[in-house]
Amino acid sequence: DTSLAEVNSFSTSVPISPSSMINQYKFEDEPELRDLFITVDDPESHITAIETFITYRVVTKTSRGEFDSSEYEVRRRYQDFLWLKSKLEEAHPALIIPPLPEKFIMKGMVERFNDEFIETRRKALHKFLNRIADHPTLTFNEDFKIFLTAQAWELSSHKKQGPGLLSRMGQTVRAVASSVRGGVKNRPEMFIEINDYVETFSQKINVLDKIAHRIYKEEREYFNEMKEYGPIHTLWSASEEDIADSLKGVASCIDKCCKATERRMAGLSENLLPILHEYVLYSEILMGVLKRRDQIQGELDSKVDALANKKTEKDPFSEEIGKLEDKVECANNALKADWDRWKQNMQFDMRSTFTNMAENNLRYYEECLATWESFLASQTVDLHVEEDSEDRP
């Protein structure tokens, strides 16, 4: 990646500080002019005799002509987001649908509906909708428009118009039958390469995700220890008059480093951890997209085999095979384009995330270093003053 090479070869004349370094990076893929803006906020708890759930306000502002108004405000629960995702997968089986946060407790969360969990989910849902809004195809999906604009009762009515149970069972049976038949014949080389890439990517991103969460856990333990470590020096200073100032100085330094550590942890939890976990979920979605593409090709392969074994009445089969060939070609072209787009976005996200992490770490260590250097300087001055007073007659 040439942009990464340029970053690694910056001139030594560039001042080394977080604020100056970030300005040296010129990321590609600047966002284009947008005509659809979505915000997910204001989580609200609902308690009924049957269940407890959270709804989120979804505010949409748009200048598109196909919308009847320029602004909408609706409330949606998690199940509504799941419905939208399933409808997008159904309508666009060869496209990479953005991931949703997991339904149940996420890593590090103790309670399902505590404030931290709700805020983490809100951010993920906000990103989910905006990923769709930025997608050149998904953004014009009719179910997506209904999700953004319909009131609760209208959305409920629309959901009931979806495919019936027998239709969904038929789709499941076809998917299982396709998997039982085994791998598709003559899978295009490009999709073999994509499959290999996704398998490697999945392994690496899962390891990164686990290590990052372990680092965050250790950082929190270190932070909790520091909160106890500093006050001990202050208490000790009450019984050590001769070194009381030094002990209080150490306590002050520890307190400042403790606050810097807390800010660093916030940077990890807000910038690094969500991105890594999102792409863990993306790796699972990519596997699913590749399987759906294979199922489409598998249908074509089975019809071609059936035609080869059939000696009469080939015309109906030939017509059906022609339609399936078109379907496979459309799926291949859609996935190729979406794969390039996804990979470009992934690289941009990773560069941005790791740059923010580097900047956050630099700021943290510079702050801690400056704190302890200031303390050392004050102690050196005090020592010189004491030596001068002792040398006087």
From TrEMBL:
Gene Ontology CC: one annotated term: early endosome
Keywords: Protein transport, Transport
GO molecular function, one term: phosphatidylinositol binding
Keyword Protein transport found: yes
Domain of life, source organism: Eukaryota
Keyword Protein transport on entry: yes
PX domain mapped to chain residues: 34-155
InterPro entries in UniProt: AH/BAR_dom_sf, BAR_SNX7, PX_dom, PX_dom_sf, PX_SNX7
Membrane-spanning segments: none
GO biological process: autophagy of mitochondrion; endocytic recycling; piecemeal microautophagy of the nucleus; protein transport; reticulophagy
Pfam families in the cross-refs: PX (PF00787)
PANTHER family: SORTING NEXIN-4, SORTING NEXIN-7
Family assignment from sequence similarity: Belongs to the sorting nexin family.
Name the UniProt record assigns to this protein: Sorting nexin-7
Species of provenance: Tauraco erythrolophus (Red-crested turaco)
